[in-house]
Amino acid sequence: MTGENRLIDRHGRRHSYLRISITDRCNLRCTYCMPPQGIDWTPREEILTADEIVRLGTIFVGMGITKIRLTGGEPLTRRDFNQLAERLGALPGLKTLAMTTNGISLAKRAAGLRAVGLNGLTISLDTLRRDRFLQIAKRDQFDAVMEGIEAALAAGFAPLKINVVVMRGVNDDEILDFVDWAKDRPINVRFIEYMPFPDNKWSTGGLMPYVEMRAMIARDYELIPLLGEATAVGKDFRLAGHSGTVSFVTSMTESFCGGCNRLRVTADGNIKSCLFHPAEQSLRDAMRAGGTDLDVERLITQAVDGKQAAHPPMEELMTMKNRTMIEIGG
Ligand code: SAM
Ligand code: SF4
For the whole model, what pTM was predicted? Predict the structure, then answer.
């Protein structure tokens, strides 16, 4: 059933965007995402099956979701990814099926993904230097990601979003290199403020605030604001003479909670109404206990009703009990 949105919370926010983590496994070890000691992978039987994900997708779309992003861990480590994407992409009422990936297997797969119905793609790339990639991601996969980006462009993913987590003293000296790199390509470079999660080496000193990133670019370029949707998390700009665009995701210094339209489902099937709020309810357990679609809808409604007006300030987030980014799904 499509139509009226039934995902409106107590603060009047209408939720139309669902991020589903489909695995907590990953073939990179980015320092800002995964704790150095690694994580205990969730046993496979606790991860949502493709049928469960499609069932949840169907329920959520019936309640008002029009955009689903598949994320993780690394979504392309799931062997059934293409079949899953094809089934979700066919849901009536769903307008956008997107994925966030580290890009290392896209060289071979990008065209096929487009063919099964994926119509939005974000690739994470924090550096344009091979040696630095190894330092950040702990795996020597820079060339694979760059080839993956070319394949994604050739397959027609445009604009192609590139996520760059900016960390002071690590890659902040490459901000202008990224802007130049996107000059002649349909690429949206998204500079993301470094967020704190358990054991991810975050410090206030490592965070480079949006205003500083913006000032750095503004020394060389005129940033022309693009009017986005009120719910967009990025502040978007074009640059004179550039095909590429630049966005800033300012979760730490200028939170966008007031316009938040997102809900999340973790790889083990919990609904999470906010990335920074530890509350979770298991939709998987309800389904596995024989619950009806209506039972699942009730749990979703409860989670939406419990959504906080805003996430706590940065200093509190550092000490808060939460799961790691890779466990929640970015
Ligand atoms: N493996 C895929 C990837 O790397 O694109 C998808 C999952 S990853 C958790 C999703 C996004 O979260 C990536 O763009 C990553 O850069 C971002 N991310 C992870 N940890 C972060 C942090 N501490 N602060 C800001 N962004 C983070
Ligand atoms: Fe893996 Fe993505 Fe996290 Fe890097 S950011 S460790 S690629 S899940």
Answer: 0.94
